[in-house]
């Protein structure tokens, strides 16, 4: 018997269902078992892919908790159920982030020892190892014990996903000294420092996210989301300014040549290559794609989901939480 | 009678006292009344500048509250006293940020209606209006009422400093909807929305800091400091990567030409041109320079301090707080 398919939420994301179906087909062409969930009449040509029906859709702007409770026949809720019930190996959705997290939590349940799942986002670092930032938005208000769990989850994920033998863990703060930070950070610092199962390097600052000593950056979901979006916004702003300067009248051929020299850098920082963010702490592999995911981003997310199933990510996470 | 001098802490900053004294002399050459405070024997050639003696130094790493209480003859504490006692019009220090804020608070006292002062940092935006971010690090744990005061203080500062007639104010969050955010943001949103004295544009996200609708970004000191340093770190990382790509073997003359095309952009984003961060909410003009401030950064900070005294910033802030 072949491996169970990765379940793709065909209705989730700004470009659903067209780009999502295209991405699933691209993944299938790479030889990965994949199936769709969504409204069968709205998906267009799905080729050889199995389609599990779901007749409701949770929109990007809906309040997550209520949407998941009331729309039990939505593609997001059905995707999580299909994984729970053994019809799929993992789920991928580019839909409403909070709803995906809530559905996965409610249907797949938590790994023992985890109070709240966290969203782990990979930050691509040109010429260096990728960084894992968590929580990047699942829970805005956090407890020290939750951040402690994030350190173990993130550390295990960095090991399984990126082959980093003993990932270093940093706690996001506003000064390197243990007594610097807000109350949450001060209360968390000691928990991380006392845990021999992680390689804690202490507090790090915003300027260390891309270039500092930590493979894994632990923070609450509010701060993590602000960091992620500030980083994305700054890169995007600078890229626009640079393109403007190099294509201005007077920049001439040198500008065009320079844009070509910078293209590899842009490609290395392209979030589409990452394959989405990983929801860590639930009993299953769940990948949350960017709302703007196109076909390649979806195909990459499916590929990562498949790898994480084969790599037995969830078993490793459970082992880390019971250590 | 001439205007009172701006008091410069000669002992504060990574490059003190040499670069600080040089910066004060540069400001004096621009015609701005300026005086130094510090250990008279350690300042070298201070030219025509008056030197107020202070025989203790608070280092960059000292715990701020304790340092200010115990080192009453430090240059930072003396600088704040000199302003309070009418010997100076304003103070500038590139020393221990927390100590400068604490000394200014203790010696100058608060503006009526302000519970906690905030550090307002200006973010340069090439080709656009500068943004004011506060609090960027004075208080890590904040109350909704403090953030409400920051909105009025920041708005008034943007008007007096940058001539923005009615600055727009955004609240840093992780979604535009009023119900998105952590508890602090949710509790603050309504206070800002109900205040007719500010032009509140609602929640903004990290990606809006440089390019969104808000002239003034209000947040707690933990988040603000993380945003500021993430932004600085991302710019610095990208600049290094770009220089690397454009000076690599094979980049040739086009790379060199392109670096020249990008130089004006780098100059527009240079934090030294900003003149330091402003401590808002105390009864006096107090500028906190970057620890790495060189002579030009100090001279610019003195110049801004002088402008803010002439522009009666503190009176405008007091009026805004009593509205």
Summed up:
The structure is a homodimer of 323-residue chains. Chain A has ten helices and eleven strands.
Low-confidence stretches of chain A: none
Q: What fold name stands as the CATH topology of the largest domain in chain A?
A: Isopropylmalate Dehydrogenase
Structural class category of chain A: alpha/beta
Q: What order do the strands of the largest sheet of chain A run in, or round the barrel if closed?
A: 3-2-1-4-11-10-5-6-9-7-8
Describe the main β-sheet of chain A briefly: 11 strands, mixed
> C-alpha Rg of chain A, in Å?
20 Å
Number of helices of chain A: 10
How many domains is the backbone of chain A divided into?
Answer: 2
CATH architecture of the largest domain in chain A: 3-Layer(aba) Sandwich
Percentage of residues in DSSP E strands of chain A: 5-15%
The named CATH superfamily of the largest domain in chain A: Isopropylmalate Dehydrogenase
The whole-number mean of residue pLDDT values of chain A reads 95
* Terminal-residue CA separation of chain A: 34 Å
Shape of chain A: globular
Order of helices and strands of chain A: EHEEHHEHEEHEHEEHHEEHH
Number of strands of chain A: 11
Helix fraction of chain A?
40-55%
Described by its quaternary structure, the protein is homodimer
Q: If interface size is counted as residues with C-beta under 8 Å from the partner's C-beta, which chains form the largest one? A: A-B, 55 and 55 residues
